[in-house]
Amino acid sequence: xxxxxxxxxxxxxxxxxxxxxxxxxxxxxxxxxxxxxxxxxxxxxxxxxxxx
Length: 52
Ligand SMILES: [Zn+2]
Fold this sequence. Notes:
Layout lengths: L15 E2 L5 E2 L2 H8 L18
Antiparallel strand pairs: 1-2
The protein binds zinc ion.
């Protein structure tokens, strides 16, 4: 089978199943799929300073 996120080959013994029933290669891919976009906070832009 293939990972639902990164499309890597996943062994049936090492696959992670998310709450939606999709299979992933690792818990990181499984969590990345379940993370809601609203919970991801955008990084605050650093103030740009002129260098002399
Ligand atoms: Zn993956």
